[in-house]
Each structure stands twice: as C-alpha cells, then as structure tokens.
Specification:
- By secondary structure, the chain is mainly beta.
- Helix content is 15%, strand content 38%.
- Helix 7 runs parallel beside helix 11.
- It starts with 7 loop residues before the first strand and ends with a strand.
Length: 862
C-alpha cells in the first residue's frame, strides 16, 4: 500500500516483483549550462573519486559529461540497454479514478511502484511488452500509457565544477543573493524560519559545514561507497542548489537566500545524474502529503510526462509552490518539462550584468528569471564551486517563495489561473523587475526579493477569541517592522451594519502578537474588527474579521450528529450564550427514542461561547436515539432541542456490490474483465480475489487478487486462459470473493462463454476455367473467401484425377482478417494430352482450424 492507500495486486499466474533497479542508459537531462569539454571531464572524475563513487558510477558519469560537452542531448529509449526481462521497457500507466491498480499490475513483468493522485486516479509503473501496452492503450479505464523517461545531466559549466573555490576570508554572499535583494532583509530576521523547501535532485551532502538538512528521503539509490545516508549526493548538483536556497549564516563558506529555512533532501537522481519520471513524481506526491511548502526542481527534459503533470497538480492543489528550471537550450529548445506545466514557476537565468544568456530557455512559459550564471554555492566535502544554468536560477525563486510562505501567505489564492494566481506566486510576478527583454525571455522579469517582502501587509487581524454576550478578545500579529524594534498597534471595531469605527487604546508592541479585550458589546450581534499599526509616516489597516457575540442568557444546541459505527456517534455542539458567568459546563444527554430516562455524558468546561464536541459510546446497533446538549452554571441549567439519529447495523459479512463480466479476448489470449465493487460495514476489507475455471470444474486456470484496507473499494480484474486454441468458445465459471480482516468470506460465481468461435469460413467465389499453358493443360481458379469472425488463416487449392486420390498440383495462399480473394492456376504437367476428367478442390481454414471445402470437375484434353 502507498501512503494514500492505493492497492497492490497479487497475480498468482504471473506475480510482478517490486524492484528498485534502474536501466543504465536512458533518456533525460540535468539542467546546468556551459561551455568546455576537458576540464569538466577531469573535474567530474576528480570529484567522484574523492567521494568514493564506484568505478561503474565514475565511468557512467564521465560518459554523460562527454556526451553533453559534445552537444549530445537525449538517448532514444530504443537504444537503451535493458535490465533483464527480455529488455522490456519501463512504462507508466495512468488509470481513471476508482479503477483498481490490480487490473494493470497483474500484467507487468516487473512492478516498480504505484501512486495515487486523488481524483486524477492511480498510476502503475512497471515493465510491459508491446502487445500489453497496446491492450492497455485501448482500455476505457486507462488514461495514458507512456514510457518512464529518465532525465540525465548535461554538464556545461563556464567555470568547471571541479575547480574548488577557496574561501579563506570568512563568509561570502554570492552575487545572486545580493542581486535579488536578499541580503537587505537578513538583518531584519527575514531568513525563512518555519518554511520547508524540498530539493528534488541528486541529494544533499548531509555533513556539509554550511548545510543543515532537516529531513531526507531516497527515491533513487545512492550507490557510492561514500554515501553517508541513502539520500547523500554523489554528483554535487543537489548540494549546490541547496546551498543557494539555505546555506547557513554561520561565518564560513557562503550564505544562502534564506539561511534558516528547513531543507528537505529528496534524492530522485542517482549517482550518474539520471532519474526516472516516476521516481520524481513519487517524490512530488510525497511533498503534497507531508507539509512541504516549496518544491525546487532543477531538472528537466524536452519530453512531456503525464505522470509528472499529475503529481505536480496533486501537490499544487495541496498548497505546495512548485519552482522548476526552464532549461538550457536557448531559443532552440523552448521551455522544458516539468517547468512547462502551468502549475510550475518556470525560471530562466540572468548573469551579473542583468542579461539573459543565450543558453537560457525561451518560451511563453518562462515566468521569472533569476541569477544563474557563475553562481557560487556549496558542493560535497565542505567545498564550494561556481556553476551555471537555470538549475542555479530556480533555487533563488524557491527560497523567496518559502520566505513569503513562512509569513503565512498561501502559495496561490486561485489554483486555476496561472496568470492571476494571487498569493505568493502573484506577489513574485507583480514585484519582478522588468529588464527590457521580450516576455518569452524574461517572463515577468527578474526576481526582486526586497520588493516581494515589501508587498506583505505589516499587520494581520487574527481570529477573535473569548467571545461572550458583551465582551470579546481581539487579536492581531505583526509580520514586518522593517528597521524598527517596536510598533504602535491598536484595533478598530464596529457593528457590522454600521460605518462608524471605534478605536481601542494604542500600545507599543515589541513582539509579534498583540490583543485587547473590548466590552459593552450588544448580545447576539455581528461585529467587524481590524488591526492597525502606526509608524512615523502612515497608519496601516489590516484585513477585516467578523464575529458574533453570544446570547445574554445561557443557551446551547446540537449542530450535528455523526454516526461513527454501530456503537458510537460524535456530537458537534455550540454554546451560544453564557449569561453573566465566567465558565459553563457543557455535556450531552442521550436516550433511546421513546424512553423516559436520559443518560448524561461527562461534562467539559468552556470559558467562551463556541463549538464543542462530545462522543457517545456503548450504543446499541441499528437503534434510534435522541441526543440533546446541556449547559450548566451554578444553579442554572439549560438544554437544547433533541436531535434524532440511528446507529449503524451490526457488522456482518463483507458485501459484493458489483460483479459484472465482459469478454475481453484478444488474438492471443482468452480473457475476461471483471468489474467489481465491494464494501464492509466495519471498514475491515482485506482481500478481493477473482478465479477462472472451466464450467463445472474445480481446477483454477488463473487467479488475481488485490489487497485492500478500506470499507469500500472497486476496480477491474482481468483473468485469462493462455491457450486460445484450447480455450476459445468454452464456457467458464468466474468466482469473485471478498475477505475481511476477521477471515469472513463472501463470494459469487457467474458463468460466461468467452471468445465464442464464429462459423467456419465461407467460400464466396469458386470458378474454374481450362486453358493450355505451354502445352500443359491448366485449370485457372478465381476464388474469394470470407470469415465472419475476421480470422481467416489460409486457402488451399488441389487438383487430382477423378478416382485417384493423388494430388497432381496444389496451391496455397495466405488469407487473413475478414476477406481474401485471388486467381491461381493448377496444371497436370505429366498429362498425355488425352481427354481426362479432373477434380479441383478449394479449402478455406480459419484460426481455429475450422474448414470449408468445395469441389468441382473439369476436363482436360481432346
């Protein structure tokens, strides 16, 4: 099971094995840009040797560097070496939502991983043969079938990454950090504290003096002998990107854009720099499920990949800002993927003269540019180096995005409009500096960190608390005081139906939050409130929040009852009024509908109006109850209106809700698709299995099973008979069984005839005329045949003398599909020329060896 609860199949005729192995030579890129050949090669080999990489890894990386330096881009998947399994390629199969992964994974020679992208559907990654890929592409419940592309490095560096830069004078601020204005706010405490940036790359050196990695996870293998963790960096690319984002402000090496950000190392590129799309997608999925704020993707390639788009949409919908390198092919290659997807901020590069280098990608998808040429940052082994590329530009944007999100801003306010997204992405667009280049070169312009942070509202109105009939506590927070150590803050409030504001007494704030209590409010009335901050020049007013005061008297009610199962329910209550007391004990009382006695629950104390929750337990199954809320203060006691509900039935056997058979036979297999749906009252489903047998027989021909952990599941199983000649046209029993965690089993059996044979072929034309060919009598046969099932296999013509079974001459023709026709001649080369009667026979055969035969007589000679 994946973390989202997708299903892994068990196919007992062909069980795929989960394997992390990767093909050695496949397609892809790692985005760094450059010139130069020999220095990069020598530098890469020196770096890898110093890191303890295996000989195989060193040779592989040098080979990549050589091909890249010579301008060799991607390698065709057809030219790659396989990893066994008859050189079957890795494919990614995207399924419609609700389709079980078992219906695909059972046909994989090797299964690598599965993913679940919510409403977009699930994904299966495995090795499949060409015929199976064609079958999958034809299925209505399959969204796509695509090669699992591999991204490889293109190491072009204006200053070779092998040339370590000696930093002996303390700590340096790289030119890019200064150019975007990041150093201007480091002293103000704007350092990204609290936000998380995931570097999806070759890993991060876990022991570097300038880097602190909060979390790491490997989606690709770390094979070098010097790997300190499974997400260690064998090539140095990911470590360089991480240093730009968040190198520590510790007095040594370099400082990053946001030195206090939480770095997350997700290794998706192996030691040779390559990474499968599916591994990258799995890491993106992980980010969407694990509270990552920003993803940095300094990788890419020209090939689109639907699995990457699915994963990015999944993370984007869950609040993750996605930043990607635009590519290094200049105007020739356009913007690469995944940067080309609209959910990504595609980042091009600039140099220290605010120019866009020729190699930086051009295209309509370019959204921002950032420093990307001769960028100084960290590399493994407590070293530092210059690198160039859009790989180096993207981390600047990712870092500022994280800084803004650490201040409470959402990544976007509108996930459906990349041109007007609002939130952090909108601020980055609006504050970018126009460098005077075309939009396809610079997008909105050069990242401006200082202006982006200036766009933040310095003060925020938070939720109102401690609300009663005539009092409430107003709360606010300050996001930025610029250079000031203190701020003068206050609140304004008013009746929501009024235009006149009342202001509270101001106070001097030294921290981040402030609050005050207002009284004299009217009961059961809606009020607006907003926070204010004053500086020497102006007053800034924050967002408006609305709240409602409580009732003047003690009052309580039930808002909702959620039946959990046959024994329990959760009650949502609301204390609407407290009277003049400081605290109120709230609880619930419950009874079987029609009974006189109420059973109380344990009370809880509330000091303000608002919601509360209670749990009802030890209830009887399938029983109607009434529940009411109770509020008590001293001698005062109030109860709300009773709300009725009914508990669930007693848990029983798992149920089969859908069981539909469909003939899905091909010209290779007898197959049956089983569309199934199962459920269990106590959410304890464990296994769904389908078995294929000949009708009324016990031997199982094929079995497919899916392990599940849910209360309801549906999907498709495919069972088959591998010998079509033997199995076509036979009646079969198909049995579906579902098992729960207690071992209870429910099963159903249905019968179906699969791959029903069509009638034998038809002979539509059989005309014989006689002729003489160079002195030999000849029978010329015009023939046409057809087959209702479209499975013609051949046509044979024979000539023999009447009364003699010996064949004098014959002719055979290949006939395929539904119809075939032709003209053939038969001769008796040994005939003596005398008048002789012959028989001509035509035989048409189909795939199932069914034949149709006709015979006619002709006479040769005088």
């Amino acid at each position: 099971m994946t973390e989202q609860g997708s299903s892994d199949p068990i196919d007992e005729e062909l069980t795929p094995t989960i394997s992390p192995d990767r093909d050695e030579d496949t397609t892809g890129r790692w985005w760094t840009a450059s010139s130069g050949v020999l220095l990069p090669l020598l530098g890469v080999s020196a770096l890898l040797c110093s890191r303890g990489l295996s000989r195989r890894g060193i040779l592989g990386t040098i080979g990549v560097a050589l091909s890249s330096a010579l301008g060799i881009g991607t390698v065709s998947g057809d030219e790659t070496e396989g990893n066994g399994d008859d050189n079957l390629e890795r494919y990614v199969v995207g399924l419609e939502s609700g389709t079980s992964a078992a219906s695909v994974s059972q046909n994989a020679t090797q299964l690598y991983r599965s993913m679940e992208f919510a409403s977009a559907g699930s994904v299966v990654v495995g090795a499949f043969d060409d015929e199976m890929c064609q079958d999958l592409e034809g299925r209505s419940d399959v969204r796509y079938v695509e090669r699992d592309h591999v991204r490889r490095p293109q190491v072009h560096s204006a200053v070779s990454p092998s040339e370590a830069v000696q930093i002996e004078d303390g700590q340096r601020s790289p030119w890019g950090v200064e150019r975007i204005g990041a150093t201007d706010f480091h002293g103000m405490g704007e350092t990204g504290d609290g936000a998380t940036v995931a570097i999806l790359d070759s890993g991060i050196d876990p022991e570097h003096e300038c880097l602190e990695v909060d979390e790491g996870k490997a989606f690709a293998e770390c094979n070098g002998a010097g790997c300190a963790t499974d997400w260690d960096d064998e090539s140095g690319h990911g470590t360089h990107c991480a240093g730009t984002v968040g190198a520590l402000d510790n007095g040594v090496g370099v400082i990053g854009v946001v030195p206090e950000v939480n770095l997350c190392a997700l290794k998706v590129l192996a030691g040779d720099g390559s990474g499968y799309d599916s591994d990258i997608a799995a890491a993106i999925e992980w980010c969407g499920d694990n509270d990552v704020d920003v993803i940095n993707l300094s990788l890419g390639g020209s090939d689109e990949a639907q699995v990457l788009e699915d994963a990015i949409e999944y993370a984007y919908e869950r609040g993750v800002l996605v930043v990607a390198a635009a590519g290094n092919e200049g105007s020739m290659g356009g913007v690469d993927y995944p940067a080309g997807y609209e959910q990504c901020i595609a980042v091009g590069a600039t140099n220290d003269r605010d120019e866009v280098p020729d190699w930086s990608a051009r295209g309509d998808s370019v959204e921002l540019v950032a420093p990307g040429e001769d960028v100084l940052s960290t590399r493994p082994g407590d070293e530092y180096t210059y690198m160039s590329g859009t790989s180096m530009a993207a981390p600047h944007v990712a870092a500022i995005g994280a800084q803004l999100m650490s201040r409470g801003l959402p990544h976007v306010e509108n996930t459906d409009d990349a041109d007007n997204p609002g939130g952090v992405r909108g601020i980055l667009q609006e504050t970018a500096d126009d460098l005077g280049f075309d939009d396809d070169e610079q997008g909105y312009g050069l990242l401006n960190a200082f202006d982006a942070l200036e766009e933040l509202e310095p003060v925020v109105t938070e939720d109102v608390t401690d609300i009663r009939a005539d009092t409430a506590t107003l709360n606010g927070s300050v996001r930025s005081l610029e250079d000031a150590d203190t701020a003068v803050v206050s609140f304004q409030w008013r009746d929501a139906d009024s235009s006149e504001w009342t202001e509270t007494e101001s106070e001097t704030l030294e921290g981040d939050t402030f609050s005050t209590t207002v009284d004299g409010l009217d009961p059961d009335t809606a009020y607006d409130v907003r926070a204010l901050v004053d500086d020497d020049d102006e007053t800034t007013r924050a967002n408006v929040e609305t709240f409602r005061t409580g009732l003047a008297e003690l009052a309580v009610e039930i808002e909702d009852v959620d039946v959990v199962d046959h024994r329990s329910a959760t009650v949502a209550g609301n204390l609407k009024g407290m009277g003049d007391t400081d605290s109120v004990a709230v609880s619930c009382s419950v009874r079987v509908e029609g009974d006189d006695e109420w059973e109380p629950t344990e009370s809880q104390s509330l000091e303000a109006i608002g919601a509360f929750e209670d749990t009802l337990s030890s209830l009887e199954p399938e029983t109607e109850y009434e529940v009411r809320a109770v509020a008590e203060s001293g001698e005062n006691r109030e109860t709300g209106d009773a709300v009725a509900f009914e508990t669930d039935p007693e848990p029983g056997l798992p149920a089969i809700d859908r069981f539909e058979l469909a003939d899905d036979s091909t010209n290779q297999f007898v197959r049956c698709n089983i569309h199934w749906g199962v459920s269990d009252r106590d959410d304890a489903l464990e296994l769904v299995a389908t078995e294929l047998r000949y009708a009324d027989e016990d031997d199982v021909l094929h079995r497919v099973a899916t392990e599940i952990e849910a209360g309801e599941e549906s999907g498709v199983h495919t069972v088959r008979h591998s010998d079509r000649l033997e199995g076509a046209g036979e009646a079969y029993d198909v049995t579906l069984s579902v098992t729960d965690s207690e071992g209870n089993v429910t099963e159903e059996t249905d019968r179906i005839t699969l791959d029903e044979r069509s009638p034998a072929p038809s002979i539509d034309q059989f005309e014989v005329t006689t002729d003489d060919f160079l002195g030999s009598p000849e029978a010329v046969v015009d023939w046409a045949v057809s087959d209702e099932g479209g499975e013609l296999d051949g046509v044979v013509l024979e000539l023999h003398r009447v009364g003699d079974s010996e064949v004098v001459d014959d002719s055979s023709s290949m006939a395929r599909d539904e119809e075939a026709s032709g003209t053939d001649s038969l001769q008796d080369r040994d005939g003596d020329g005398s008048e002789t009667e012959y028989e001509v026979t035509i035989t048409a055969t189909d795939y199932f060896e069914q034949t149709t035969e006709e015979t006619t007589r002709v006479t040769f000679g005088e």
